[in-house]
Specification:
TIM Barrel, 336 residues, alpha+beta, 4-stranded antiparallel β-sheet, 11-stranded mixed β-sheet, binds zinc ion
């Protein structure tokens, strides 16, 4: 059995990673790497949000995040002044971005261009795949990292369509906006099931959880798109736009709606996950492979899974008894 190194970054998935209780990396093999908590989808008054960028970024800084991308529709916020006021070396960073807001046949086709510094205008081509691909290409050409947003918003996208896209490796499977249908229904798959279908077809694509926040002034209102519902924990050598964007694009992160990991290890033999225990919580870990099949389930912490080499890919999903979740990214295999 051997791990298929689909991309050079797969090497990072076999590094031993151990975090201390406060999330800092404490392992001799990669001493310079740390975990950084961030949100990749944020709206402000520069499009349809309800707060100025300073207030939005400040919410994330005050709530324990290390970075936030400001991603307004067709608008790039100058993050220099925000970082001057709020930025702190190694602990908080605001990164620019945009949500490219396209559509075809009344289906919303939205992509975040993470790190973009110049607006990419929607290309409005014929066909969902052609439209998204041109926008992805323009994001890459502009130095950004593309993130495919909310595939079930407006029931816009199927796995068969997404599968045809090139050079996009991030997709939202948990978006905090109340109108995006993360869980599917009525015969339509959840965003997570779409993700498994893509992985089963061999697409290298990683799961994002984020807020798609619009409303900082309506905290507690379930009909609003408020902050703090989903985030990524990114493993990077430093807190800079380049390091965070590269780590995201390379799958060096996990997605969470509340579960925090203390350790994540994936090597040639298997996966081991240590969950940061919350006082009254209980946990269940599923290891999931090709076809979305549950390969194993355990209540142990740490939770371990030993590869047999025929799984296609293996990813873990961690359930906390209060409903919080975390998703690790897939480790890919080529059959024996
Ligand atoms: Zn959107
Ligand atoms: Zn949005």
């Amino acid at each position: 059995m051997r791990i298929k190194r689909l991309l050079s970054h797969s090497v990072s998935l076999v590094c031993i990673v151990i975090m201390t209780a406060n999330g800092l990396l404490a392992q001799q093999e990669t001493p310079s790497f740390r975990w950084y908590k961030g949100n990749t989808h944020t709206h402000t008054l520069n499009s349809d949000g309800d707060s100025i960028p300073l207030e939005a970024a400040k919410w994330y800084r005050e709530n324990g995040y290390n970075f936030v991308f400001i991603t307004d529709h067709e608008y790039i916020t100058n993050v220099g002044p925000l970082n001057h006021i709020l930025g702190k070396s190694g602990s908080f960073l605001v990164i620019s971005g945009q949500e490219i807001t396209d559509s075809y046949d009344r289906k919303p086709l939205h992509l975040n261009g993470l790190g973009l510094e110049k607006v990419v205008m929607p290309n409005r081509l014929q066909g969902s795949v052609a439209t998204l691909q041109k926008n992805i290409d323009d994001i890459r050409a502009g130095g950004g990292v593309p993130q495919l947003n909310h595939p079930n918003f407006g029931w816009a996208l199927t796995a068969d369509e997404i599968k045809q896209l090139k050079n996009v490796r991030l997709m939202e499977i948990h978006n905090g906006h109340p109108l995006v249908n993360n869980l599917g229904g009525g015969g339509s798959p959840s965003a997570e099931q779409i993700w498994d279908e893509l992985l089963t077809g061999g697409m290298v694509i990683y799961a994002i959880a984020d807020d798609d926040v619009h409303h900082f002034k309506r905290i507690g209102d379930k009909t609003a798109a408020t902050p703090g519902h989903g985030w990524v924990m990114v493993r990077a050598a430093e807190l800079t736009p380049a390091a965070i964007m590269a780590a995201l694009d390379n799958g060096d992160f996990y997605a969470s709606t509340g579960v925090e990991l203390e350790e994540y290890t994936a090597d040639g033999s298997g996966i081991s996950i240590k969950i940061k225990q919350q006082t009254w919580s209980k946990y269940r870990v599923q290891f999931i492979g090709s076809g979305g099949r549950v390969l194993g389930e355990t209540f142990d912490n740490p939770a371990t899974y030993k590869f047999n080499g025929n799984e296609g890919y293996v990813r873990a999903k961690i359930y906390e008894s209060n409903g919080k979740l975390a998703w690790t990214q897939p480790v890919f295999f080529k059959g024996p």
